[in-house]
Write a structure and sequence with these properties.
heterodimer; A: 262 residues; alpha/beta; 9-stranded mixed sheet; 29% strand; B: 320 residues; 28% strand; elongated; binds flavin-adenine dinucleotide
Chain lengths: 262, 320
């Protein structure tokens, strides 16, 4: 019985670019280059390692919800070694929030069929870090989230969660949703062979009709949340910068004392 | 007045500061009703009442510790059904966000995470978020269901506002389906005796410039002289010089102290994402071109091994 793994991957604006909002207060995705969210590379990596540990007896599907360009994120994941892609794309998805995204992802995951869903710990744009929990709730399966170590054996997923106050060892039966942190292990670079092979791997395209989702359940109009204002943070007024010529520590202490920190 | 559920973050009844901040914010939109799960409700109740909780709903069950997140969602849902609140507030911890998210699905509500401020609005609470590594500030609200909002630490100064804080037992049935993820073992983090990173008023962080675990005491000594928490950049953490629990940034902790001191940190966007909302920012870096200097209120271009010990001595002597 082959293990069916679905990895959720998000296409995001490059964090090192000049990210901003469009007029409708959604993320401007036209002006800044997009890429596979770096934190999802860790999810792809762990899926590949789980497949390797199962002697290859697994199939990895990478899934994204996003505009046409989001296909780039799928190609990157496929070039790392995933087997096939699913791209949910529909004009009515523009402006979908977390609740809506989780609805679409959950339906697409059910349609694809799965034993294990692997996500990144958070996206690098919305950075909510709640999608995996939302998915577990919608799918009605265990959540094994924020893992710095993960393994699957005999229908059980085990992982280590480094929480705020404690480190926990977790365990759940499949099917389950997991998310992995950037502590789980460096993601591999796609090889040239991988990049060439990715071009031939199948990517299925789905729209809202295919998932039995009404247009008014998602998108800006169907959103559970509304952004009313987005303002660029005013540039910080230029601070004082001194060069240390033996007095740097003293000068800094003077500043801190002036600000009543000492 | 409408009631507002506040999820209590605590360790055996010792209420953590972010919860007191939540109670303060909750009073802007209604009457806070605290939900305390697990042991220690009696201890917690006094603190919660002191900070404005009109009621404390409490439940304790082994399932809260034995399984991840879901049993607590069952309990919060029970509280939601008992109260019909105008909003549900939780701390923006990993667990707080996950509990809030699952509750939102169950009750058909939207969720806003990582709010840094909260006000009453004509159409329900308005949340301020600081996004894209704090380069934008947004104001949002929830348009469907009962607003579920998670709030970052240090978003408000806790204010005392004595209220009744009547303790009421909450009847909770943990669903079989909520026992999916077993917590096989739990190793509590050893306390360093320093303030909690996300709650500290002052944070001193070291980066790759610290150049080795053996040099981190230089950073710690400054932190201790100021009563500060110690942070680290990912470069320092990845090199094994400091624990990941102290990492500041996008994939570490997000901090918003009164004072942030960065030593030997260049100021990459992912680091900025975790500290840019600090009130006062100070950097020590030997490279005058380091991007961190774009953020600072005060910067010293120099060798941290010269500047930091000199500063520590100066702080100590001034504090007498
Ligand atoms: C700055 C900003 C703030 C936002 N704040 C809110 C808010 O407060 N409330 C709200 O409802 N919405 C919010 N959104 C919208 C929200 O980001 C999107 O709906 C998003 O797809 C889900 O949230 P996330 O990206 O933050 O996911 P996270 O929960 O951070 O992502 C975790 C993981 O889920 C998976 N994932 C997430 N999105 C997708 C996708 N489209 N396709 C495939 N996999 C995916 C990935 O594996 C990812 O690593 C915000 C968006 C932005 C840009
Ligand atoms: C997906 C993703 C997530 C990430 N998450 C985080 C995160 O959460 N937190 C984080 O910090 N980073 C994160 N990073 C990494 C980030 O991009 C940077 O690589 C990292 O912040 C660099 O750390 P640094 O500033 O300590 O090191 P460097 O960039 O190498 O800077 C070291 C600085 O020290 C200075 N220096 C050296 N010696 C001295 C001396 N003797 N005295 C004074 N100054 C000296 C140098 O001039 C230099 O400016 C993330 C990256 C990615 C891709």
């Amino acid at each position: 019985m082959s293990l069916r793994i679905v990895v959720c991957v998000k296409y995001v604006p490059d964090a090192t670019g000049d990210r901003h909002f469009a007029e409708d207060l959604t993320v401007d995705r036209d002006d800044v280059d997009g890429l596979l969210s770096e934190l999802d590379e860790y999810a792809v990596e762990q899926a590949l390692q789980i497949k390797e540990a199962a002697d290859g007896d697994a199939e990895i599907t990478v899934l994204t919800v996003g505009p046409e360009d989001a296909n780039d994120a799928l190609r990157k994941a496929l070039s790392m070694g995933a087997d096939k892609g699913v791209h949910v794309e529909d004009d009515d998805l523009h402006g979908t929030d977390a609740l809506g995204t989780s609805l679409v992802l959950a339906k697409a995951i059910e349609k694809t069929g799965y034993d294990l869903v692997v996500c990144g710990m958070a996206s690098t744009d919305g950075t909510m870090g709640v999608l995996p929990a939302l998915l577990a709730e919608r799918l009605g399966v265990p959540q094994v989230t924020q893992l710095s170590e993960v393994s699957v054996e005999g229908g059980t997923v085990k992982g280590r969660r480094d929480g705020d106050t404690a480190t926990e060892q977790l365990e759940a039966s499949l099917p389950a949703v997991v998310s992995v942190t950037d502590q789980s292990g460096e993601a591999r670079y796609p090889s040239f062979k991988g990049i060439m092979a990715a071009k031939k791997k199948p990517v299925e395209s789905l729209d809202l009709d295919d998932l039995d989702i009404e247009a008014d359940e998602v998108g800006l109009a169907g959103a559970w949340t509304k952004v009313d204002e987005a303002a660029e943070r005013p540039a910080r007024t230029a601070g004082t910068i001194v060069k240390d010529e033996g007095e740097g520590g003293k000068q800094l202490a003077e500043f801190l004392a002036g600000q009543k920190f000492i | 007045m409408a009631e507002v559920l506040v999820y209590v973050d605590h360790v055996d009844g010792a209420v953590r500061k972010p919860t007191l901040e939540l109670l303060t914010l909750a009073r802007r939109i209604g009457e806070p009703v605290a939900v305390h799960l697990g042991p220690g409700a009696d201890t917690a109740a006094a603190t919660l009442a002191e900070h404005g909780a009109v009621k404390v709903l409490t439940a304790d069950a082994p399932e809260f510790a034995d399984y991840l997140v879901a049993p607590k969602v069952d309990a919060l849902q029970a509280a939601y059904e008992a109260v019909s609140p105008a909003a549900v507030l939780l701390p923006s911890s990993t667990e707080g966000k996950e509990i809030g998210a699952r509750l939102a699905v169950r009750i058909g509500s939207g969720i806003i995470t990582d709010a840094v401020d909260l006000e009453a609005g004509d159409e329900g609470p308005v949340a301020t978020q600081s996004v894209f590594a704090a380069s934008y500030t947004t104001k949002s609200r929830i348009t469907k269901g009962t607003p579920v909002i998670t709030v970052k630490p240090n978003s408000a100064a806790p204010e005392a506002a004595p209220a009744a804080g009547t303790v009421e037992q909450l009847a909770v049935t943990v669903a079989e389906t909520s026992k999916g993820t077993k917590v096989v073992s739990r190793t509590p983090r050893e306390s360093t005796g320093r303030p909690e990173l996300t709650e500290a008023a002052i944070v001193v962080s070291g980066g790759r410039g610290v150049n080795g675990a053996e040099n981190f005491p230089v950073i710690e000594a400054l932190a201790d002289s100021l009563g500060a928490a110690v942070g680290a950049s990912r470069a320092a953490v990845d090199a094994g010089w400091y624990p990941h629990t102290n990492q500041v940034g996008q994939t570490g902790k997000s901090v918003s102290p009164q004072l942030y001191i960065a030593a030997g940190i260049s100021g990459a966007i992912q680091h900025r994402a975790g500290m840019q909302t600090s009130k006062t920012i100070v950097a020590i870096n030997k490279d005058a071109e380091a991007p961190i200097f774009d953020l600072v209120d005060y910067g010293v271009v120099g060798d941290l091994f010269e500047v930091v010990p000199a500063l520590t001595d100066e702080v100590k002597s001034r504090k007498g």
